[in-house]
Amino acid sequence: MKIITVEEHFMSKRVNDRIKEMMLKQGDVNLSMYNYVDNFVENSLITNLDEKRIAYMDKVGVDAQVVGYGNNPPMSISGHDAVELCRLANDELYEAIQKYPGRFYGYATIPVGEPKEAVKEIERCVKELGFVGVMVQGTYQGHFLDEKRFLPIFEKCAELDIPMYFHPGAVNDNVYNAYYKGDWSDNVTRTFSGYGLGWHYEVGVHIVRLILAGVLDRLPNLKIIIGHWGELMPYYFDRMDMGLNQFVTGLKHPISYYFKNNIYTNPSGMFFKDDMDFCLKTFGADHILWGQDFCYLNNEFVNTDNVKSFLEEYDIDKETKEKIAHGNAEKLFKI
Ligand code: CA
To answer: If pLDDT is split at 50, 70 and 90, which confidence band does 71 have?
Structure first.
């Protein structure tokens, strides 16, 4: 069974070093976060888009990865630097795609804070580099992307018929302090605000905000991907349809309609049976993709080497399994 995974990451060492240098100059740097990122850049396969990664993919049975930027992305900075560093990141990914055709596909990294430039970069990545989507990480400096200034980015993705991946990113300082700080260590706070829980609420809220702002009524063909089995939202489809009903929202459809029609999800390495059972019922099999979150969940504590075997062993008919393993991704990304 062919496996295409859709939430996979790389980082550019050059881009990461430049961002760190800029932030050190501005005095605006959380050194413990940087030490963590630097350590990861040095000691994982995150910057590797070469033989070592291919060997790992072969070992666990992944035929192709759709790859987007990882932590500390250049989309979060502003001005000309953001434009330049996003291009650099995209060019580096493009080289790997050229070198290993059919093994890697790319999500464009875009300078979100410069929407006109972001639109140009989407055009370049899709038309010249053959990228198949866009990935954004969280908010832009604390601003959700439903603000009107960001609309051209959505319009371009809808026009080119490529999906936008909404990946989590660092929560802003106010949220961090009010929601996640407590009588526990900084490490617990960082994890709690991030991949321990906070990230997932934030992406869910982000998508509901896009719906409430009418982005999907305006662009009914826009396709969005979210990870982590729907970022908590499927548990509230019925609740949102009841509370945030059309009388309240003025939208063309109930909230769950947009999730089931415009939005796709995948496990992001959360190979948990109950979550998959639930998402098959709520999203439906046509909107489930496969994803490992490479290489964040491959260390001494966590192991996602069962990326293929989990799906092989999952009790579902062959046709549905093939859709989830690769068919839905081939259709969505046109690959
Ligand atoms: Ca990820």
So the answer is: confident
